[in-house]
Specification:
InterPro entries: DUF4470 (IPR027974), TF_DEAF-1 (IPR024119), Znf_MYND (IPR002893). By secondary structure, the protein is an alpha+beta fold. It is built from 35 helices and 37 strands. Strands 5-7-3-2-8-9-11-10 form an eight-stranded mixed beta sheet, with helices on both faces. Strands 1, 14, 15, 19 and 20 form a five-stranded antiparallel beta sheet that branches. Strand 22 and strand 23 form a beta hairpin. Helix 15 crosses helix 21. The radius of gyration is 32 Å and the shape is globular.
């Protein structure tokens, strides 16, 4: 495996997800078929919600592959989905499906329904072929026969359990396990505590739902029922009862409520809103939701709508299942993609000796199962198995398309500070590693996201204060990784990034040292094989010389072994394992590995006619050696982290971390001294009487031959501080579990580990091209630009990229020969234009880099005789105020073929399925104040105050387009909701001076976007063009005259902000598109860009979406018959900074918002939370006037407050659109 060998003796059963559902297609253009891979899939919530979120979109086919390590998770998922496939008289009501899937106790009728469905599945699954030919198997397919067998056995357990439901043995066994589960929960979480992450389900109104959510979740945990108790006698639900045991307790909180978007339970929705609960909304005097019943009702209502949508969409869906380690599946798929072979010699999981062999009919040559994907979702696996491992393993499975996205999540703190969180993600070199792997974290570069972590921050802050922990907040962070070559948003073909072997070796060695540093952690995520997999992946991706890279890396490792600082001793002990891995993947073979000789010792394997470099060492460890510390591990709940040691005379013990563990008995085939000799394992339950522990790993044959007679092999536990504290007294300082001489009977030497046919295959084949060529020495003419990564020797970081372009045109060569002036001009975050000669007759050559770079600080090399130019450009930084990334927020690009727009970081959503907030009840919408104010990061708030204090500012605008855009967005958000004065849904985006109004924005509704913990404006936009304003359409002219008389909020913008709006509009339109692009689409025309143009009066969006609006979208005269045909529907969300780039909410801001958060005091997490009214200046945020006086009210509305007349004047451009005469003047 790619991670250290960890046996979790206590493995909680995660039957139900603990995060709200997301749409698996949220990054993809509507209407295009998609293949999706779910690693660590968990329950079915994401699949059901995806079907719901696709409603209203152009239809498409979805093929979803679900991978999870727990057989019982897949067994219950498939049975659940099969219930939803039943039709006509066999159709199962949604409340019955809810009970069977979520309730821990069922009444007699539900038990019989479960048994009937289990028997039905058993009847059509006598073989895998029978299953795939059945009505269920056509849509619900198994990727491999082992998963099929395991799941079918569990279905039989379900049916048998129903037969035993009345027995005391059945009931008592379940209650005993539930008591163990409660003890496990108490140990992990405390007696009465409830993790604050339950607030995710209530976002964006978590502050007002926390008490109700906590009570509802705790009730679910205690009773096993959600939303009422069925009448009659209850029995343990087999879907839970057969899965849990003393070593597999039910995970806490296992509440179905956490899977749904429960803001609808609190929010005041319009009468016609989707997903509106029917029960009465009960709110305390402080404004907090009090009804637990309404929370459960909201969840059940969503479940009903989601399952209904799934039933309608399933004819276009195929869902595949495999129970396997995610890395085993990914590397098997990589191998299968390249060769058509369904096995890459990986074990299915961390514990066990069965290899992963995919089904030949689906994954072999000619099979139609997907091997590359549009979306790969990895849940929060990176918390435990390492983000770098995921990018290396799953990254190559992404399709070569702009929208293709790999999602990672992390919830653990794992970093020393907020600023370090991003860099520490990939072993301290995130930007370098991602650049080498060709995968970019798009939201780091844009520093913009529609996903809100505001609620999580407000909930996490009290926990952090109470626990007095340092470092960043513990919040869920999602990262979208995309192919670097597409994130520029242009159609320019990118050349492969080149890197000198010595530079790549320097960068890789720095990452290797960080990996070994991470071995000091309680549960390490990397070992030598992890590093080599990364190294091979980089050598496949970059233009370099793999063999030279491998040689130089091993040279650097040898030199670092003697370093006085750093983990030199640890590195020295791992070197044999590292050199073996480097050789086995085909990078470089050290001479010492090739010194094996036949018949040079008494070892039987030395008589083989062909001795491989790597031989398998298998240990059979008797129960008396392994059971004592296993039993103790069960008592303490501590994981077991194994490693093997080989010690020869006069040397330190060589460590091998990639050890496969299993249980059973060893059998052999053939003679030890024959090439055909094989070691097999008859697997058994670990606690079965007489079951040995089997440990197998690969070691260099040359090392075993060195000292055959006295060399010793041992299996031990990782000797870190945590393991030593728990097991040190039992196992001693060496932490040895078992040891034997190589020639003893418990040790087996063979060519392959048990059950395998060869060494496991990591990734695809290495390139056979010549590799890196030093362009400074021999720059061969090339029609396309080339790019080389420059590595800092001291740190191993890539902070600069050199772009090389050969001047092949006669005009350019002549300009070089004439020594014409050459200047650089940055036209986008990715492109630096080389301008040769004097304008306007100059020749312009564009260099489009693979990642954002900055002209500032760049260097230029001009070879006038050799006719080439090089630019050494530093990487751009997203926090450089006013830098090249200032207007790079929500980019989009055009796909090939078809030139369909693809958004790069804007989540797609079906607006008509989202709940609609009522703007009449201002009290229930108070949450928006916090939500909207948080679009300004801590850094931006400081900049905002600085610019607002500047008396030289014109029209209240700052010099930063991004900051001005957020000011405008803030105005639109608060005015459309009416939370700071008057309310209107009509906005004019205009420039001061003579250019006038450029766009009209019509907000039809404010909707809750629970999947992104935020809200979204359902709106239409008219972006004026010269042709539109010169139209002969008299009714449209009348409409424009009418608009002048309406209550309209004017949003003032400058040139830069106006361009930013135009760049964003395609993403805002595409994310909610319910129509298809036609054959005459302007985007499809040759040479078209997206947006079509940012010039004044020129067309921005294609015309395909114009007029494609729901009926009665806006209630204005001339709208339906005339104005709407010029308008395109858009979805506008609050735009937050990315937590990857900077701090979103600072402590001072937390204190201002309230929510029970006090600075310097540990405040209760949930109960008694009150909203703190914001008594601050609307313009600058100060809480008092200069000199300490009270804030003064606006004399017209009597609501807006200011610290001074100057602040009121600066805010007027925003406030005038919302300021209405106060009711007090009419009493």
């Amino acid at each position: 495996m790619l991670t250290p060998t960890i046996q979790a003796v206590i493995r909680p059963f995660y039957a139900i997800g603990n995060t709200p559902a997301i749409s698996l297609t949220r990054c993809l253009p509507q209407g295009l078929d998609a293949d999706i891979l779910q690693l660590g899939c968990g329950d079915v919530r994401h699949i059901l919600f995806t079907a719901y979120a696709e409603q209203g979109f152009p239809s498409r086919k979805l093929d979803i592959t679900c991978c999870d390590i727990q057989d019982h998770v897949l067994a219950r998922n498939i049975l659940m989905l099969s219930l939803l496939l039943n039709t006509d008289e066999e159709a199962v009501p949604s409340d019955k499906a809810w009970n069977i899937y979520y309730h821990r106790y069922l009444d007699d009728a539900d038990m019989e329904l479960l048994a009937a469905q289990a028997k039905k599945l058993l009847a059509v699954s006598k073989s895998l072929d029978d299953w795939h030919a059945s009505m269920y198997g056509l849509k619900l397919r198994f990727c491999d026969s082992d998963t099929f067998s395991a799941v079918r056995a569990i279905w039989k357990e379900y049916a048998d359990a129903v037969q035993e439901k009345d027995t005391a043995k059945y009931k008592e066994a379940f209650e005993k396990v539930m008591q163990k589960s409660r003890e496990f929960k108490k140990k992990a979480w405390g007696e009465f505590s409830m993790v604050h992450t339950s607030s995710r389900s209530g976002a964006p109104v978590s502050l007002f739902m926390m008490e109700a959510m906590m009570n509802a979740n705790e009730q679910d945990w205690q009773t096993g029922l959600s939303g009422g108790r069925p009448s009659g006698q209850l029995f343990p639900n087999p879907m839970f009862a057969v899965a849990v045991s003393g070593n597999s307790p039910l995970a806490y909180p296992s509440s179905p409520l956490l899977s749904f978007h429960l803001a609808t339970a609190y929010a005041n929705l319009t009468e016609l809103s989707p997903l509106r609960p029917e029960s009465e909304r009960e709110v305390s005097p402080e404004g907090n939701l009090t009804s637990v019943v309404r929370v459960a009702e909201a969840a059940r209502l969503q479940f009903r709508e989601w399952t209904k949508a799934f039933g309608e969409a399933v004819s276009r869906m195929t869902i595949r299942f495999t129970s396997a380690n995610c890395f085993a599946l990914c590397h098997t798929l990589q191998h299968c993609l390249e060769t058509g072979e369904p096995c890459a010699n990986w074990y299915r999981r961390e514990v066990g000796m069965r290899p992963l062999v995919l089904e030949e009919s689906d994954y072999g040559k000619g099979g139609d199962a997907p091997k590359q994907f549009d979306v790969i979702d990895t849940s929060n696996i990176s918390d435990y198995d390492g983000a770098l491992n995921l990018l290396v393993s799953a990254g190559p499975l992404l399709k070569d398309r702009p929208a293709a996205t790999l999602y990672t999540e992390f919830m653990k703190r794992g970093a020393t500070s907020e600023n370090n969180k991003f860099e520490e993600l990939l072993c301290g070199h995130t930007k370098t590693a991602s650049l080498l792997l060709g995968l970019g974290p798009i939201e780091y570069w844009t520093n913009a996201t529609a996903y809100s972590i505001v609620d999580e921050c407000l909930m996490a802050m009290p926990e952090k204060a109470r626990s007095n922990t340092k470092g960043p907040l513990k919040v869920q962070a999602r990262i979208a990784w995309k192919h670097n070559r597409f994130i520029s948003g242009t159609a320019v073909e990118q050349a492969t990034l080149a890197i000198k072997p010595e530079d790549l070796a320097t960068a890789a060695h720095s990452i290797y040292l960080q990996m070994n540093d991470q071995a000091k952690h309680d549960i390490p995520m990397y070992h030598q094989g992890s590093f080599v997999a990364f190294l091979k992946a980089v050598c496949r991706k970059a233009q370099t010389n793999p063999a030279e890279v491998g040689r130089l890396v091993m040279e650097k490792v040898r030199s670092s072994e003697g370093a006085k600082a750093g983990p030199s001793q640890l590195i020295r002990r791992f070197r044999h394992a590292l050199s073996l891995e480097v050789s086995q993947v085909g990078l470089y073979t050290e001479p010492s590995l090739s010194t094996t000789k036949s018949n040079n010792t008494d070892a039987a394997f030395c008589k083989w006619t062909k001795i491989p470099e790597a031989v398998a060492v298998t240990l059979a460890i008797s129960p008396r050696s392994w059971k004592p510390f296993h039993t103790y591990a069960v008592m303490t709940g501590a994981p077991l982290i194994f490693e093997a040691h080989l010690r020869t005379a006069g040397s330190v013990a060589n460590v091998y971390s990639d050890v496969q563990i299993g249980f059973g008995s060893v059998a052999t085939r053939g003679s030890k001294d024959q090439d055909e000799y094989m070691v097999l394992v008859n697997e058994a339950d670990p606690w079965a009487e007489g079951a040995d522990m089997i440990a197998a790993f690969y070691a260099p044959a040359a090392v075993l031959q060195t000292d055959w007679s006295t060399a010793q092999v041992t299996l031990g536990l990782l000797a870190n501080a945590t393991s030593m504290a728990i097991f040190g007294q039992m196992l001693g300082s060496s932490m040895t579990v078992f040891g034997a001489k190589l020639h003893e009977e418990q040790v087996y030497i063979s060519k392959q580990t048990p059950g395998q046919k060869d060494y496991h295959i990591v990734g695809g084949s290495l390139p056979t091209s010549p590799g890196f060529q030093d362009l400074a020495i021999t720059p061969p003419p090339c029609p396309t630009p080339r790019f080389t990564a420059d590595v800092e020797a001291s740190s191993g970081d890539i902070n600069c990229i050199t772009g090389h372009v050969d001047i092949a045109e006669a005009e350019g060569k002549q300009l070089l020969a004439d020594k014409a002036p050459i200047e650089l001009c940055q036209s986008s975050p990715f492109a630096i234009d080389i301008v040769m000669g004097k304008r306007p007759q100059s020749l312009v050559i564009a260099l489009t880099f693979p990642v954002p770079v900055s002209k500032e600080g760049s260097k230029t090399r001009i070879a006038r005789k050799s006719s080439y130019i090089e630019i050494m450009a530093p990487l751009a930084h997203p926090l450089n105020a006013g830098g090249v990334l200032d207007d790079y927020l929500f980019p989009s690009t055009l796909t090939k073929p078809g030139r369909i727009p693809a958004t790069l970081n804007t989540p797609h959503l079906s607006l008509d399925t989202l709940p609609i907030l009522s703007v009449e009840d201002k009290d229930s919408n108070r949450f928006m104040t916090t939500l909207y104010s948080s679009i300004f990061s801590s850094r931006e708030r400081a900049l905002r105050e600085k610019f607002q204090a500047d008396p030289t500012r014109k029209h209240g605008l700052s010099p930063l387009a991004r900051l001005n855009f957020k000011e405008s967005l803030f105005t639109i958000l608060v005015v459309s909701a009416g939370i700071q004065g008057g309310q209107t849904g009509l906005f004019a985006i205009a420039q001061p001076g003579g250019s006038g109004v450029h766009m009209l924005l019509f907000v039809s509704a404010i909707r809750i976007d629970g999947a992104n913990a935020s809200i979204v404006l359902d709106a239409a936009i008219i972006a004026f063009t010269h042709e539109m304003l010169m139209t002969s359409d008299e009714e449209f002219r009348e409409f424009l005259l009418l608009v002048r008389t309406l209550e309209c909020c004017t949003v003032t913008v400058d040139d830069a902000e106006l361009v930013l709006w135009k760049k964003m509009l395609p993403s805002l339109a595409e994310r909610c598109r319910t129509w298809e692009h036609g054959p005459d689409c302007e985007y499809a025309k040759k040479g078209a860009n997206i947006p079509l143009s940012t010039g004044e009066g020129e067309q921005v969006l294609c015309s395909c979406g114009a007029g494609k609006l729901p009926d009665k979208f806006v209630t204005l005269p001339y709208w339906e018959e005339t104005a709407s045909k010029y308008a395109t529907r858009v979805a506008i969300s609050p735009t937050y900074s990315s937590m990857l780039a900077e701090e979103i909410i600072g402590i001072e801001q937390m204190a201002r918002y309230g929510g029970g958060v006090g600075v310097g005091e540990g405040v209760a997490v949930a109960k008694g939370v009150k909203w703190k009214d914001s008594e601050t200046c609307r313009n600058c945020g100060k809480t008092e006037a200069p000199g300490g006086g009270q804030l003064k009210k606006c004399m017209r509305c009597l609501k807006a407050k200011y610290c001074s007349g100057e602040c009121q004047k600066k805010d007027w451009k925003k406030h005038r659109g919302e300021c209405g005469e106060a009711e007090e003047y009419h009493k």
